[in-house]
Write a structure and sequence with these properties.
The chain has about 160 residues and is an alpha+beta fold. The protein has a single domain, classed as Roll (Thiol Ester Dehydrase, Chain A). It has three helices and ten strands. It has a six-stranded antiparallel beta sheet. Strands 1-2 form a two-stranded antiparallel ribbon.
Length: about 160
């Protein structure tokens, strides 16, 4: 723990920063993340433990055979993890994906997909999370994803 000039302990951990609300995150996405409009992601929940995001059913996300394509599922997972991180630490536009590993478990049913991200570790420079993707209304996941984000130092976080 760092100390100020008088020697008073100061907690400098990112974990104590104010996170973002769904409304603040949505506004942030409009300003900084134009790709969100391509997918029409709907952020349903942000909390200290993670995030829940919906990918509305759209014919543009289908592959032959009528199933939602893998790239759309990976984008949903990546976006949901980003939402979980910013929901916890606040606005850090330059946090970036460093790893994303996807296991496709079963074919999604027609309809919306729901991603639920849980932060497993949140450090000063790295965040690690786990994401499960479900067909809306189903209990069994269609995909399991793990991801890591690099978080820039505080003095570089908004450049």
């Amino acid at each position: 723990m760092a100390a100020d000039e008088q020697g008073t302990p100061q907690n400098t951990s990112r974990d104590t920063q104010q996170g973002m609300t769904v409304a603040a995150f949505d506004a942030f996405c409009v300003e900084h993340l134009p790709f969100v409009a391509i997918y029409n992601f709907v952020t349903e929940t942000l909390c200290t433990e993670g995030a829940r995001v919906r990918l509305p059913a759209d014919g543009r996300h289908l592959r032959p055979g009528g199933t939602i394509c893998g790239p759309a599922q990976m984008a949903l997972a990546d976006f949901t993890l980003y939402a979980a991180i910013l929901g916890r630490i606040g606005e850090v536009p330059l946090a970036v994906t460093t790893n994303l590993t996807t296991n496709f478990l079963r074919r999604p049913l027609p309809g919306d997909l729901i991603a639920e991200a849980r932060l497993m570790k949140l450090g000063r420079r790295l965040a690690v999370g786990e994401i499960f993707i479900y067909s809306d209304g189903q209990d069994a996941p269609v995909s399991h994803v793990t991801g890591t984000y690099s978080i820039p130092p505080k003095d570089e976080a908004t450049n």
